[in-house]
Amino acid sequence: MRVLGVDPGLTRCGLGVVEGGGGREVRAVAVDVVRTPPDDEVAARLGAIADAVERWIAEHRPDVVAVERVFSQHNVRSVIGTAQAGGVVALVAGRAGLPVAFHTPSEVKAAVTGSGRADKAQVTTMVTRVLALDAPPRPADAADALALAVCHCWRAPMAARMAQAEARAAEVARVHAAKVAAATRRRAR
C-alpha cells in the first residue's frame, strides 16, 4: 500500500509518501513541505497547496491519502487555516478517486511512538528510525506527514478487519432478528 500522508497547514503543509509491505514493513518514498507566504490571500495559498497535492498524486500514485484530523487548539486562526488546508487536500484526493483517511494527532503519535502524548521530537526520532532515514526529516511538518503515512499503513489493515467483523456481526444480527420475527408470527397464528 502506498500512502500520501499530509500534515495540513497554510504556512507549511507537510507531504510524505510511504510504501507499506506486509506487517510493519514500511519505507519512505518522498517527503517535502509546501510553503505559502502568510501575506498572500488565503485563496491563493489554498490553491498552491491544491496544486502541490495534485502533482504529488500524479507523480507518486498513492492508494490512499492520510490527513491529520484538526483538533481544538487555543489559536483559532491556526485551526481554521489547518482545517481549510485539510479540506482542500481531501477535495483534491476525492477528485482523483482516492480514499481519504483522517487520523488524530494522538492516534499518529501512539502508532509511531507508542504514546499518544509524545512530543514532536519523539515523533521525528521514531519516524527516522522506523523508515531507516539517514537524517531526521525537517521541518517537523515533514516528519509529521511521514508519521501520518506510517500510521495509516499500520492501522488500515486492522481497521479493515474490524469493518469486516462488524459487517458480519450486523448480518448475523439481521438474520437472527428475521428468524425471531418469523417464529413470533408463527406462534401468533
TrEMBL record:
Ranges in a coiled coil: none
Keyword Magnesium part of the UniProt annotation: yes
EC class of the enzyme, as a word: hydrolase
Binding site for Mg(2+) 2: 68
Pfam families: RuvC
Cofactor dependence: Mg(2+)
Keywords: Cytoplasm, DNA damage, DNA recombination, DNA repair, DNA-binding, Endonuclease, Hydrolase, Magnesium, Metal-binding, Nuclease
CDD domains linked to this entry: RuvC
Compartments reported by the entry: Cytoplasm
Cofactor note: Binds 2 Mg(2+) ion per subunit.
PROSITE patterns from the UniProt entry: RUVC (PS01321)
Major subcellular site: cytoplasm
InterPro entries attached to this UniProt entry: RNaseH-like_sf (IPR012337), RNaseH_sf (IPR036397), X-over_junc_endoDNase_Mg_BS (IPR020563), X-over_junc_endoDNase_RuvC (IPR002176)
Presence of the UniProt keyword Membrane in the record: no
The reaction(s) this protein catalyses: Endonucleolytic cleavage at a junction such as a reciprocal single-stranded crossover between two homologous DNA duplexes (Holliday junction)
Residues reported in the UniProt entry to bind Mg(2+) 1: 7, 141
Transmembrane regions: none
Annotated EC: 3.1.21.10
Protein family: Belongs to the RuvC family.
NCBIfam families: ruvC
Role noted for this protein: The RuvA-RuvB-RuvC complex processes Holliday junction (HJ) DNA during genetic recombination and DNA repair. Endonuclease that resolves HJ intermediates. Cleaves cruciform DNA by making single-stranded nicks across the HJ at symmetrical positions within the homologous arms, yielding a 5'-phosphate and a 3'-hydroxyl group; requires a central core of homology in the junction. The consensus cleavage sequence is 5'-(A/T)TT(C/G)-3'. Cleavage occurs on the 3'-side of the TT dinucleotide at the point of strand exchange.
Assembly and binders: Homodimer which binds Holliday junction (HJ) DNA. The HJ becomes 2-fold symmetrical on binding to RuvC with unstacked arms; it has a different conformation from HJ DNA in complex with RuvA. In the full resolvosome a probable DNA-RuvA(4)-RuvB(12)-RuvC(2) complex forms which resolves the HJ.
Protein name: Crossover junction endodeoxyribonuclease RuvC
Native source species: Actinomycetospora termitidis
Gene that encodes it: ruvC
